[in-house]
Amino acid sequence: MSARLRALLLHWTGAVPVLAVVLLALSWGRSLPIPLVVLVSCFLAGAVLAAVHHAEVIAHRVGEPFGSLVLAVAVTIIEVALIVTLMADGGEKSAALARDTVFAAVMITCNGIVGLSLLVGALRHKVAVFNAEGTGAELAAVATLSGLSLVLPTFTTTTPGPRFSTTQLIFAALAALALYGLFVTTQTVRHRDYFLPVVTADEVMDTEEHAEPPSGRRTLAAVGLLALALIAVVGLAKGVSPTIESGVAAAGLPSSVVGIVIALLVLLPETIAAVRAAKRDRVQTSLNLGLGSAMASIGLTIPAVAAASAWLPGPLYLGLGATHMVLLALTVMVGTLTVIPGRATPLQGGMHLALLAAYIVLAVSP
């Protein structure tokens, strides 16, 4: 082991993910007392911060938009594995788990991450500037997949309830994979310049932009530690979920609130990374993280649960209710009007955050 790699592992950003995974292994599947819940929560927060750090190291090495794509896809793959595991354990009561989780991710990313990034960027730099072509393509892809996967099942008539027939589910899964593959190709190959941060004439570049990219060895170490940190984030979030469920039940709140809390915890790395990018006037990077995470969540989760439904017990409910469809329609409309100019003020960020707040309030009080 080289001296640099040893120093990285001894630094808190290297030590915390390793210790968090060890704690996850020791606490997995056990009922946690309150002191252990506090300890798990502390390591969960540390793993989130470590994940952001290692994602930024990788982004500095590979550049945009690859950096934001790495974090979005890594979180989503682990989240998908968690969803399938919970569905396998939950039986029929988890029939709507994939739908609720994906929709929560869409609302948090498209309104929470995007709104917060626009608000921070506009307050710090007067106007948040981004590339309308790339951001518009991302939003259109999210809207298309959301409509095909989450809205249409409510209106199909082949099978009762908000669910697809087998043929329809196969089509939705293949469409999600195809559109996500086309989106990644567009973002990283054919039209990569549409997804790069817009550099304004009066922008002052910070020292990080001029720093030498990390070495290949350090980047590989960051990839491994990022994977460990994300596994710890998702696993520890699941570990504290019984405590969250007990608290939600004691407060008399609907069970869907638990899914929102877990989704907020899982998406913390992207949220922190997006806000930090917005502070540096890299709003396009923030939007790549937010909308890219929404796209990955739909494009990877729907095919995974479609394949898993062949052996999972119980039905698979994907269709949204009327209230959530209204919120999704408002999100797409407001997002479209925000994207068209390629510039945003704090007002646009506030509108997206208001939609997220409405989603949370209606989840608490349907």
UniProtKB/TrEMBL annotation:
Keywords: Membrane, Transmembrane, Transmembrane helix. It comes from Streptomyces gilvosporeus. Residues 36-188, 222-363 form the Sodium/calcium exchanger membrane region domain. The chain crosses the membrane at residues 7-28, 34-54, 66-87, 102-123, 135-155, 167-185, 219-237, 249-268, 289-311, 317-340, 347-365. GO terms for molecular function: potassium:proton antiporter activity; sodium:proton antiporter activity. It is found in: Membrane. This is Ionic transporter y4hA. It is a multi-pass membrane protein. Its main location: membrane. It comes from the Bacteria.
